[in-house]
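Aim 2 progress. For Auxin-induced protein 15a, the working sequence is reproduced below.
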Amino acid sequence: MAFRVPRIIKKSSTAGDVPKGHFAVYVGEKQRKRFLIPISFLSQPLFQDLLSQAEEEFGFNHPMGGVTIPCSEDVFIDLTSRLSRI
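Predicted structure tokens for this construct:
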């Protein structure tokens, strides 16, 4: 039996090329970086907390074309690496 670990794809471009099963988020405090996140993360409570913080800070207006997550890149990578192991 094989387990498939969701992977996070870090991209610096802003092109609209999002693979099936992923969505774009922008992370960072000053310089925002684009990450492509598996949609399976949407059901995880830790990620839902991040989305709630994003809603509180930015509302539903995300002009960059993806959800803007209000945290540092290091914190985001740590959190999503934990989610990949769940």
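The chain has two helices and four strands. This observation will guide construct design in the next reporting period.
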